[in-house]
From TrEMBL:
It is an enzyme of class 6 (ligase). It catalyses: tRNA(Lys) + L-lysine + ATP = L-lysyl-tRNA(Lys) + AMP + diphosphate. This is Lysine--tRNA ligase. The gene is lysS. Homodimer. Residues 189-504 form the Aminoacyl-transfer RNA synthetases class-II family profile domain. GO terms for cellular component: cytosol. The lineage of its organism: Bacteria, Candidatus Vogeliibacteriota. It comes from Candidatus Vogelbacteria bacterium CG10_big_fil_rev_8_21_14_0_10_51_16. Its cofactor is Mg(2+). One of its GO terms (molecular function) is magnesium ion binding. It comes from the Bacteria.
């Protein structure tokens, strides 16, 4: 049958329910327990002999006549569930229990009603007592049932689910419903973010909020999304980073702040980039990049241990050990080690272009030294950094908000963390010299005027805040989508964003 025919059949059943005086979408359920709790405490429930009320979605029906079995799933999961947990049964599905409908228990009318009017995908409520079948399967014998929500579209085939990746991302609700591994991936992501918050809270950081709509975008080198506020008649930008606002809070007397943020960057979409993504940024007064490196190392260990119950992560067939000391390598040394570039600090823009051409690395005609170097680094070095590695000592022009070394004025005290060939963290000792910051902004304005849409524009309000005084500080940004990719061994950022940005589906 076609989808249209199947939908029409279900609408007939919906009408039959209403004609029989049954409300197919009641306002509430009388559920007395979650299925995961029932299956984990099964023997105690059986010993009590009391009736319980379970609610959930019918995931399968089998049998006919006097006895009909079904699988009921309420979506519940155990505290601490993650990819590290062993599935409860051979189906690997939490929150599922077998239910039995017997004609001699339910009565003719109720039994026939279930057989003829209830489909896979419907939500129902079941009252009954628990027992084990001869095969030992945990089962609820139903004494009465009630419709909670009649589904009008059939679920995907339970054996194949959604095969087309595009359809999986567009209908993630079906993807996670039919594939327990997908659901557990998002449970793991949630556990990860909770673990990050716990670590920061325990370290004395205060969680705060900063604006999503900003009159001047800043805090990162990226092209923003632009919008307009009609009442104020002004142009606004969706946040590309919360950095400048969080540092204003340091000025305002808050020594340790963090924010789990949704950032928006008007950029391309690929395996590690989505225009809307999740970061955590945190800033601490009276510290610097080297101290924050140690802090980040401890944070990563905490998260992995909390989520995966150990010190290792399997990613892309590589075992990554976060229990050992993280490696440290200067940014410029990467070019010598992986691209055979001698004295990289002395090369001109033209010479870097020659290196890029030799290595068949693409770059745009308007790209300056920093962008050409970055493209070379991404192709030659980054993918080879499998074990946790801190890259340090970046050119000052690369990070216009970072503090210079006093004895190496062309470099800034900054680092990135790479694991599994994926950039996870960017951090630096924060620039708090308002004169230097204004000059660095002026240089960025020149870059923007020359055609670089990802330059960081001058923010006079931020410079003014610095003039009131900001303590020395270390700031860190961690890509939570990418970290969840590592923890769940997935290679596409769409796999860890429940609603990724998608091109509108073509209609005929």
């Amino acid at each position: 049958m076609s989808l249209e025919d199947l939908r029409a059949e279900r609408i007939k059943k919906l009408e039959a329910l209403r004609e029989a005086g049954v409300e197919p979408y009641p306002i509430a359920s009388n559920q007395s327990a979650e299925i995961t709790g029932v299956t984990e405490g099964f023997e105690e429930f059986v010993e009590s002999g009391e009736e319980i009320i379970l609610a959930g979605r019918i995931m399968a029906k089998r049998g006919h006549g006097g006895a009909v079995f079904a699988d009921l799933n309420d979506g519940s999961f155990a505290e601490g569930d993650s990819l590290a947990d062993t599935p409860e049964d051979e189906k690997g599905r939490r929150g599922t229990i077998q239910i039995l409908f017997k004609k001699d228990v339910l009565g003719e009318e109720s039994h026939v009603g279930f057989e003829e009017l209830v489909d896979v995908g419907d939500f129902i409520e079941c009252t009954g007592r628990l027992f084990r079948t001869e095969r030992g399967e945990k089962t609820l014998e139903v004494s009465s049932w009630r419709m909670l929500a009649k589904s009008l579209r059939p679920l995907p085939d339970k054996w194949h689910g959604l095969v087309d990746p595009d359809e999986r991302f567009r209908r993630r609700y079906l993807d996670s419903l039919m594939d327990v591994a997908v659901k557990k991936r998002f449970i793991t992501r949630s556990r990860m973010i909770t673990a990050v918050r716990e670590f920061l809270d325990d370290a004395g950081y205060l969680e705060v909020d900063t604006p999503v709509l900003q009159p001047v975008y800043g805090g990162a080198s990226a092209k923003p999304f632009t919008t307009r506020h009609n009442a104020l008649d002004m142009e606004l930008f969706l946040r590309i980073a919360p950095e400048l606002y969080l540092k204003k809070m340091l000025v305002g007397g808050f020594p340790k702040v963090y924010e789990v943020v949704r950032n928006f960057r008007n950029e391309g979409i690929d395996a590690t980039h989505n225009p809307e993504f999740t970061n955590v940024e945190f800033y601490a007064a009276y510290t610097d990049a080297p101290k924050q490196r140690k802090f980040v190392e401890a944070l990563i260990r905490h998260v992995v241990k909390k989520v995966l119950r150990g010190d290792t992560v399997l990613y892309d067939e590589n075992e990554i050990n976060v229990g050992a000391d993280f490696a440290v390598i200067p940014y410029l040394e990467l070019f010598t080690r992986f691209a055979n570039v001698q004295t990289p600090e002395k090369l001109s823009l033209e010479e870097w272009r020659e290196v890029a051409e030799r290595l068949k690395v693409e770059y745009a005609p308007e790209d300056g030294i920093d962008k050409v170097m970055d493209q070379i680094y991404k192709k030659t070095a980054r993918l080879q950094l499998i074990q946790p590695t801190f890259i340090v000592d970046y050119p000052a022009t690369y990070l216009p908000l970072a503090k210079r070394f006093p004895d190496r004025y062309q470099l800034v005290d900054a680092f990135q963390l790479v694991m599994g060939g994926v950039e996870l963290v960017k951090a630096f000792s924060e620039l708090n010299d308002p004169i230097d910051q204004a000059e660095r902004f002026a240089e960025q304005d020149k870059i923007i005027a020359a055609g670089d849409a990802e330059g960081q524009p001058s923010d006079e309000d931020f410079v003014e805040a610095l003039e009131y005084g900001m303590p020395p500080a270390g700031g860190v940004g961690i890509g939570l989508d990418r970290l969840s990719m590592i923890l769940t061994d997935t290679k596409n950022i769409k796999e860890v964003i429940y609603f990724p940005t998608m091109r509108p589906k073509e209609t005929k």
